[in-house]
Amino acid sequence: MDADGRLLKQSHSNMEEEYESEGEEETKLDLEEEEISLEEYEFEEVGTESDIAIPGDDIYEITRVENEEVVDSTDQKVLSYSERVQVRKRQRNVKELELLLQEKELKVQKTREELKECCRRQETLEKEKKKVEDDIQEQQTTNNNAALFRLRAQHRRICEELRGEEDLQSKITLTLQENECEMFQVELEHVKLMRLREEHKDIEKEYEAQRLLEAKRRLEAEEAAILQAKTRKSIKDVEKQKLEHRRAVEDAKKYNQKSIQYLKESVARARQEQADKELKLREELEKRMQAILSLKNSIATSRENLRAGQMKKNAQAAEKQKKERLSVQSECENYLQHMLQQKRLKEFEKKKQAFTEEQKNLKAEIMAKILREESNMEKKKRVNPALFPETLKKQDKSSEVWKLRKKLLKYVDDNSVKEKVIHTSEQEWRPPSQASEEPVTEQIQSPSIKDVTDHEEESLNLPEFSGLWDKETKPSKNETVSKRLGAGTSKMEQQILARQLEKQRSGIVQKQVAAGREFKGCPFYSKPDIIHFQNFDVGQTYKQKAKLINASYGITFCRLIGISDCLKDFIEVEFKPPGQISAGMSCEMMVTFTPVVFEDFEGEIMFRTHIGSFSVPLKCTTKKCDLVVDKQVVDFGCHTIGETITQYITLTNRGAQRTYFQFLTFLPKHSFGDELSEFVIPSKKDALDLEQQSHNEIRVGEITMEEIGALTSIKLPITFVPLIPGKVHTDLEIVFTDPSSNNILIEARAEAVDIPVSLSNPNIDLKICMYDRLYQDSICAHNRASTALQLKFEVCEELRNHLELLPKTGYIQAHSKFSFQLKFLPRQSLPHDARRYFNEKTRVLEAPMSILVANQTKTIPFTVHAIVTSSDFEIDQQMIDFGYCSIYESVWTTIKLTNKSILSQGYGFVDVPEYVDVQPNHGFGVLLPLETLNIDIFFKAKEAREYTFELICKSEINREFKISCKAVGVFPPLKLSHSVIHFAATALNDTSMVTLYVENSHTSQNEFTHPVPRIGKGEIAPVGPTSFEFVVPEYSYLTIAPAGGTVMPGEKFRVHLIFKPTLPDLLVQEEAVRMLCRAAETERILEKQDSNDTSILGNSSNKRKTQAKQKDINQPHQSASKLQFKENDSSSDNSVFEPPNPTDIPLDSDEYNAALDSLLRSFKEEFHSFVIPCFITHRTTEHKESAYPPYSIYNTLYLEVNCPTAPPPLILISGNKQNMVDFGAIAVEQRVLKKIEIQNISQSSLDLKSSALDPGGPFELLNSLRSLQPGAIHNLIFSFTPAKSKMFYEPLEIRSVKGNLSLILTGCGIDPLVICSVENVLDVGYVLANQSRTVTFQLQNATILNVMFNVKLDSLSYSKHREQQVLPAFLAPDKISGSLVGTQNYGDHSAFSVSPINGSIGPMQSQEFEVTFSPDHESLYYSDGMQVELFDKVAHTIQLKGAAREHLMFVEGGDPISVPVESLTILPTYDTGDVHRTLKSVLLTLKSTKSDNKLTTALEEFHVGCIRSTQASARKSVEFTIDSPQAIQMKGFTFDPVKAMVEAGTTKAVTVSWTPPGGHDPLQIITATVKMSIRGDITENYQIILTAMVIST
After folding, report:
1. Is the per-residue pLDDT at 907 higher than 70?
2. Which helix (H) or strand (E) segment is 1573 a member of?
3. Residue 994 pLDDT
4. 3-class DSSP state for residue 826?
5. Which residues contact 327 (CB under 8 A, 6 or more apart)?
6. Is the CB of residue 795 less than 8 Å from the CB of residue 822?
7. 1021-1036 b/e (C-beta count within 10 Å ≥ 16 → b)
8. What confidence score (pLDDT) does residue 842 get?
9. Do the Cβ atoms of 1038 and 1172 come closer than 8 Å?
10. Which of 224-228, 365-369, 743-747, 1117-1121 has the lowest mean pLDDT?
11. Which residues pair with 1236 in a beta bridge?
12. What angle, 0 to 180 degrees and rounded to 10, lies between the N-to-C axes of helices 235-331 and 335-383?
């Protein structure tokens, strides 16, 4: 901020110093820098750069001229340099001050915003402070110290923040004051400077004018330099370019023809290859299709066969089931018993199969374990052979193994035999006969399973080491010892060793005495006492740790001896002898149990110490069921009839085995066979008893048959429903599928009593109710008892918010009645709260209520019925945005009001604003149940502002439904004189026109005196020219002329609206299709009738038959249309006509015209309404150059047009859509007549009149109009005589009282246009004298007329001599001669001839002409004029030129050195061999250009040619040679080529280049001469004169 102040003061001091002494301070400036900056600024403003005015690096070299006055052609004084500098400095200072002022304003604005934010924060903190103080006072009254501490800390923090904000506010205020002060100073300086600029305003204007004038001068100088550079371009370069272009075009045509030929061949080959591929592909596809079809047929056949087989099997199975059912019904009357038996047999089959699979798996596991034990045993025997004396011999070992394997195989065979026995027994088993009257039970588990299990126990409970029992021979003690020691030991040693072993095995026990006391008892006890593996599964592994605690008096050793034999196959003990164990210490062992069979085991683990042996019990138990109930007697007590009482018993399974149970009434059991049944199956008699018991008062609950898991419990319900007063006793039974579990009997007792209280009407019908409305009814209760009873009225929990019974408690006296009130107030949450009782689809509420009687469990039920409906009105739009609405129009929208109730409801829109209208019936009415009504809401803005309001719709129960509405009023800058236009009834193809005005009344922006155009509260529209544009909807038959324009303030603009109704093209085309179909149908009927007539006539005589045939042959074939129809058989009755697509019918066809005539005659009245938008935009200087100025969519005006259409009174017979009378294309000044017919198709006579035609136009009506009666036809004759070559178009109206018929007269006057392939000059080229050459050119007729032509030569004209009596061009250069005739032949024949000379050219065709050049002497200036006349008017003038030589060679090019006119004197000829030939000259001027101190190379060229002779003996080429070119190379001249051959009929270009040598003086002209010799039929010498110069740009 300080820096800005310093900058302001500095700029202020500089400005004061500058304006106090403007002239004195100029000498202190660097004038050169000021000039440079001034010139740079001028170039930037003008935007142009000139390399000519300021060339090279001298762009900044400007000479300063002080106090010098220059007067231009406009007599305007030019400012001096010092004045220009002052103007520039003033402009720069003004810009700097403006930028500084903007910066200061921005800073002030930012500071004010910060100040406002600071004040807002202070207010927020004050509010928080006041709130905290109130909280502190409140907490002080309640003595809440914790809250007081917190609130006081918060109060201190808020006070600190408030003080900080106040300090910040003071700082911001101070800063704002400083910024405002600085801004005011800058504004003051800016005002002073602006006043100073106003004083020197004239000087600034002169400065700007001078600057623009200088820029204009520079631009003119640049344009002059560019034009001069363009004029320097050589004409020969242009000719050379044309020649090269022509050659390139000819080469391109040749190459194009060749490429087209090759392309055609390639395309033909490609198409042939593609056709071959397609043929092969089709063949393959046909083969595949055949294969697929055959496969499909075979599949269908197979499916049919399979379906037939399946149906046969199904029929057989159904028949078999039917027979079985009949047999069962005949044999067993109790069908339920039979089905239950079948079900249990299937379950048994599944169990048996599972058991078989399990047995197989167990066999495999046993075999694997036996083999593993054998391998382990072999290893142990190899390591410690002394421990196994019984098995030292291999024979004994092999015999034992063989016995084990033999025993296993025998076990497997026995199992397989028993399985076969089981299977056979199952197949032979049959259900018992029904003849037995006793109930029969089913045996599910076969006794064979038990045998298998017993055998499994025998086979699996083998010892770990074979040979411990089941021995055949027992060796003696000496043999055993000798086997262990071997054969080399003595008998004494064997005895000693035997005694030691016996001593060790005997386990000598030592006594333990401590402190005089001998230890007696178990030396160790285990923890736990019993190692118990409970509820194990086969195949799993279980581990358990146990501790052995030393209970003796001293140190003891412990060693594992072994385990019980029955546990050796399943138990592994991991015990490491711990050594010496002190008293009270312990050691651990790990017991691993791997069950293989599903059985219980008991045994012990044996240990030995030096003071005695002990063992640890071990027990393994399988999963079992242990089923108990909590009570076996259920007493329901005394209850009232109609109540439902449920009590539960708990069935608990304390075992680990799950089982199924069935809870049913108790029935005596019957045995079947020797085993007990799994379930009890009732007989026929018991089934009837069970059916009767289903209506008993005590029955089993929902759970009758279910599975109970291991270590779980389940509650079984028993329900008591008293029906008859008295005591009830029932026995129930729980039956289990587990055979080891016994059935459980349960006894149920209860007593039923009657109800004393009843209701007069147990069904309360409230009819139809509405939500949130209160409904009441009275209910009466009667007491039949002899004592007073207390009643309590209860409502279900779901309906407590909606229904109430009053009073809630009451007393009813003996033999009297009691009335209570029911209040029903359904709320909107009723469907959600009472889902069980309320049906949302039918809206029906069935609410069960109850009355509780004291000391009575059964309630008195009654039901409340009601149909609950809504009282809502549903409005599809809750928010209506009318958008932007002009004050000249109304905006309307449609809403849907739906009655959601099933009752009729009245509605009304109340408190409607004056600028809103609601229809129909002004917003009041009645809606039927579930009715939806469309309501129109109209909004018309009164002024330009924003509208926000609400529409309130009230129902007859005073419910309000609000609709939020908003809109923006728009005051457009323009106004239409009419917003709605009603056209009078306009006939079809007639025209009606109305006039309206577009007004611009916006002349002032003062909004306080009158309303001003604006959008809402936006900016006021600028005063000025305002443009508009109407956009007419498509297919509206409306035209606005003009569609757009600009209206000045306070003025009106007239607009014409034209309505011309026509028929759509598609409608006419569809009518044409219908007419074609009708015509085809008529033709088919006629042909059918003709065929019938022909068949009837065939039965007559031969003469009549012949005449009929001749008549049929001569009868012409009538076609209903020119379009082609597709018929299968024209003579058949079933001929099919395919109607064409309507869009395919041309608009100029006869079918279209016939359909149009039909529609015009049958047209009925129509009415259409259109809305045309008018877009408005303001024309500003920024958008003058843009084609589409921006417009605001909100300022759009709308024009509603109502257009009634009437049938036409007049039609043009055989007319077209536009009623156009087309005379076609006619040559200029020819006359054509055309006749048309009009018809009166109305019901009254018409007096006809016509509009006036253009008197000077080409059209003319030749006959008069008259009155037409209904249906009458009148002929009109028109003539067409075009005077110019253009398209003529003129409307004509045939007027009547009912309508007008608009005709369009059109014709085209064509001036014959023929395009010539040659422009202005046709150069034949060089030809040998007395020989000829023919060239061709073409005339192409570009018109559709037949053109007559004549070709004339100027040399054959009668005025040739008169036109040639003028001076030649080289003598009178200012006069232009109109004659094109030059040198001619000496003889009678003309040098040029043309063929043909007259004829005609067809439309869009061409005619080829041959021009023959036949000179009779040598000359280079043969010429003639050829004129092509079309219809006796000259259309083309072509100059024919040619050159003749006596010899083959010629040279052309260079600068002209002779006049292009040949002397009229005939020079004599001499013998060329005796006379010395003159040397011919060729002049070449080469100009080198100097640019940036560099010289360019100048190029020129001339051509040497050889004429093609018609004589066979003539030479075919010439050769030219440049003599001594080295002599001129020192001067910088170079020829290319120096020597070359030229073939006949061609030319060779010789290029001459000149490069200025080093040190050449640009002002000096260099000349040189060189000779060139050409050898052909003779040798000619040419002198080439070279002139070189340097020019600067």
Report:
1. yes
2. strand 1566-1575
3. 93
4. coil
5. none
6. no
7. bebeebbbbbebeeeb
8. 86
9. yes
10. 1117-1121
11. 1276
12. 110
- 571 near 591, Cβ under 8 Å? yes
Is residue 37's pLDDT more than 70?
no
Query: Which ranges of 1356-1406 does DSSP label H, i.e. alpha helix?
Result: 1360-1363
545 contacts 588 by C-beta, under 8 angstroms: yes
Whether the bond between 920 and the residue before it is cis, its omega within 30 degrees of 0, is: yes
Give tens-digit pLDDT for 1481-1526.
Answer: 888 888 888 877 788 888 999 889 998 887 766 778 888 898 888 8
Give which of 1145, 1318, 1157 is closest to 1241, Cα–Cα: 1157
Alpha-carbon gap, residue 584 to 578, rounded angstroms: 14
CA distances from 97 to 8, 100, 604, 1089 (A): 9, 5, 116, 106
Contact status, residue 717 vs residue 703, Cβ threshold 8 Å:
yes
Reading phi first (left if > 0) and then psi (alpha if -120 to 50, else beta), residue 862 is in: beta
Report whether the peptide linkage leading into residue 1139 is cis, meaning its omega lies within 30 degrees of zero.
no
DSSP assignments along 1477-1536, one per residue: PPPEEEEEEEEEEEETTEEPPEEEEEEEEEPPPSSTTS-SEEEEEEE-THHHHTTTEEEE
Per-residue pLDDT tens over the stretch 479-497? 444 444 444 556 777 777 7
Distances (CA, A) of 1001 to 490, 540, 940, 976, 995: 154, 106, 21, 11, 19
Per the model's pLDDT, the better-predicted residue between 910 and 447 turns out to be: 910
Spatial strand order in the sheet of 1232-1240: 1210-1212, 1232-1240, 1273-1280, 1259-1261
In Å, what is the CA distance from 220 to each residue of 53, 519, 1279, 1398, 1548? 11, 144, 58, 54, 44
Closest among 509, 597, 591 to 556, alpha carbons compared: 509
- Euclidean distance between CA atoms 901 and 867, whole angstroms: 11
User: Can you say whether residue 539 is alpha, beta or left, with left for phi > 0 and alpha for psi between -120 and 50 degrees?
Assistant: left
Rg (CA), the chain: 65
Residue type at 715?
Answer: K
Residue 1425 has pLDDT above 80, yes or no: yes
H/E/C letters for each residue in 205-244?
HHHHHHHHHHHHHHHHHHHHHHHHHHHCCCHHHHHHHHHH
Beta carbons within 8 Å of 1135's beta carbon, 6+ residues apart: 1084, 1127, 1128, 1129
**Which residue do the tokens 């004061």 mark?**
16
Q: What SS3 class is residue 68?
A: coil
Q: CA-CA distance, 617 to 546, in Å (whole number)? A: 11
Q: What is the mean pLDDT of residues 848-854?
A: 84
Q: What angle do CA 1038, 1042, 1047 make, to 5 degrees?
A: 130
pLDDT tens for each residue of 799-834? 888 888 888 888 888 888 888 888 999 988 888 888
C-alpha angle 1572/1551/1573, rounded to 5°?
A: 10
Residues paired with 1583 in a beta bridge:
1481, 1571
